[in-house]
Design brief:
The structure holds 2 protein chains of 2 kinds. By secondary structure, chain A is mainly beta. Chain A contains no helices and 10 strands. Chain B contains no helices and 11 strands. Classes of the chains: A mainly beta, B mainly beta. Chains A and B meet through strand 4, strand 5, strand 8 and strand 9 of A and strand 5 and strand 10 of B.
Chain lengths: 104, 119
């Protein structure tokens, strides 16, 4: 069974800064099945990135995904106030434990 | 507009049963794979179950295998989750989520329904 480990657990940044979130798989996975989600308190998750690097419908281009094999990255180029949330990576039926992006 | 609306959650005693429903609209339900995903209070996301567009292929997480049953009625645009032998650790918000073709990801989610297992 694949385990996805996200780091860091919490990222404290200011609006306008760049955020880099990591997702590491316990074994090599297909990039086609790596996704990222954003979740805000009291809301359902929202798909941001699928296929490791493709933005979902309506997702701003400040969100980008990259990586292959066991190491994947979600980058938010310039944080907007609405981007402070928890982010999860997913590979097929496995989710990472999440990274919280909080306001510094 | 794609909409997924869950219902059927509530408070149930350990060992009890509950049936969740997910009403779909705004897309051709019969063409899409569907999933249930849950989130315990203050915790992360856990995939629970998958059903193919026709209902012919079904998968479960080990944590619910033998206790939960996923099903769908394409004529009614509805997804279901029958939950039996409920345990305290099944307490969570349960989301239905549509599968994005060919990606393994979930592109639309319902708002969730809370299931609380407690005596």
């Amino acid at each position: 069974e694949i385990v996805l480990t996200q780091s860091p657990g919490t990222l404290s940044l200011s609006p306008g800064e760049r955020a880099t979130l990591s997702c590491r798989a316990s074994q090599s996975v297909s990039s086609s099945y790596l996704a990222w989600y954003q979740q805000k308190p009291g809301q359902a998750p929202r798909l941001l990135i699928y296929g490791a690097s493709s933005r979902a419908t309506g997702i701003p281009d400040r969100f980008s995904g990259s990586g292959s094999g066991t190491d994947f990255t979600l980058t938010i180029s310039r944080l907007e106030p609405e981007d402070f949330a928890v982010y999860y990576c997913q590979q097929s039926r496995t989710f990472g434990q999440g990274t919280k992006v909080e306001i510094k | 507009e794609v909409q997924l609306v869950e219902s059927g959650g509530g408070l149930v005693q350990p060992g009890g049963s509950l049936r969740l429903s997910c009403a779909a609209s705004g897309f051709t339900f019969s063409s899409y794979e569907m999933n249930w995903v849950r989130q315990a209070p203050g915790k992360g996301l856990e995939w629970v179950s998958y059903i193919s567009s026709s209902g012919s292929t079904i998968y479960y997480a080990d944590s619910v295998k033998g206790r939960f049953t996923i099903s769908r009625d394409n004529a009614k645009n509805s997804l279901y989750l029958q939950m039996n032998s409920l345990r305290a650790e099944d307490t969570a918000v349960y989301y239905c989520a549509r599968g994005l073709h060919g990606s393994g990801s979930f592109d639309y989610w319902g708002q969730g329904t809370l299931v609380t297992v407690s005596s």
